[in-house]
Design goal:
heterodimer, A: alpha/beta, FAD/NAD(P)-binding domain, D-Amino Acid Oxidase, Chain A, domain 2, 2 domains, eight-stranded mixed beta sheet, about 30% helix, globular, B: mainly beta, Folate-binding fold, four-stranded antiparallel beta sheet, 2 helices, 6 strands, Sarcosine oxidase subunit delta (chain B), SoxD_sf (chain B)
Chain lengths: ~425, ~90
Amino acid sequence: MRFSGLRVLKEGLTGNRGWTPHWRDPDPNSDYDVVIIGGGGHGLSTAYYLARDHGITNVAVLEKGYLGGGNVGRNTTIVRANYFLPGNSEFYSHSLKLWEGLEEDLNYNVMHSQRGLINLFHSDGQRDAFARRGNAMLAQGDDAVLLGRDELRPMLPYLNFDDLRFPIYGGLYHPRGGTARHDAVAWGYARGADRRGVDLIQNCEVTGIDIEGGAVKGVQTTRGAIRAKKVAMVVAGRSSQVAALAGMRLPIESHVLQAYVTEGLKPCIDHVVSFGMGHFYISQSDKGGLVFGGDLDFYASYAARGNLPGVEQVMEAGMALMPMIGKARVLRSWGGIMDMSPDGSPIIDKTHVDGLFVNCGWNYGGFKAVPGSGNVLAHLIATGTHHQNATGFRLDRFRTGRGIIDEEGKGSQHNLH
Amino acid sequence: MRIPCPLCGTRDRREFWYRGAAVDLERPAPDAGVEAWDDFVYLRENPAGPTRELWYHEGGCGAWLVVERDTVTHEIGRVALASEERS
């Protein structure tokens, strides 16, 4: 089934009786070339690019719950490529380019909206830092515009420009940044992978990883044993538990990050606005809800919900930045389980086991990375070499101290990012 | 979340600063080698369930506490002074 405007019209006129399921619901085979553990955004995109770019279609994605039921459904949907450091910069640029062709490629409406992202600054020193970041973005081939206060005011008239503690001096504008419909991204990749022959197997929890002579041989699951030549662990949010099945301890601590959405409102916030000093950022969904979030709760958690001090901090920051937000009523909140790595950057690498790959440590930035992460992991699985735009995400960088990617300049230890 | 401090009684979570897994109680020797130090500084068990952590009562008595806590339910178990837990 191919989606098109004509098809939507036809189905609308004929009672929508012609739509079919987007993907099959197969039972697992006993043997695959590649098994991907984790049917979230990253796992599904990995399967899709294995099939599309490398012709590897004897692939299963094993998901313990339902497709897209983890962090790809628990984020704030922001897509951007405004990184500074080599290692991150070329990777997120690569990912953004994949986003830009994604809907046509998948024949699926992921509602990717490049409405522009603005990072606010509040001092001369911060302006200099953002000018430097903007130059790094331009050098990478992406877009950045440094806006002064007078240029910003007509774009974001609702902000409190004269806050005593953090008066707004301007913002770094990233016009190609924006948002996407998070669930549709998972569904689009799932459909695309399924159409190329990948088996998407839900309600199938991996309970063991079979290793013989230092090489991976397959996995044990709640739906039986499955042999595989290669296995990839793509389970951010449960990375430590799955890696433990292969005898690994990861440099990961899992934290909760809360986010919120208000009742639906008429259009009022046209961009993604990020208020770094208040750890607050906001955009408006196509349904009209204001989607916003803040910082971690700062304790280890798998609860997928946070505590009230985190809520209070975010609401205070929102009120300080845009007092109009006080009129909106919060509809609901949620918490994502963040794989926090010591330097705040992800891991996409081989492991000490031949044929076993790991993709984890996305901190609070995994959503925008979905296309890029799957694309470069598929490359690594298929070719055995790192993709040219993802050579830095090494598992051993903490042990060796070489290649730490500390984007925020905070250091490389747990609980700093 | 409220944490029962052995010195101050049960207090709001905001009075405490979270350090992380209670690995600092068993610091390796300076010459223990790269693997031991990698394990100590970076690698974590990171359990989904009961865990043992270090919290600092910065808004109270200033004591370091060893807190047993469940990372799935946020339930707090035994809390003890780190100075008395150290082997």
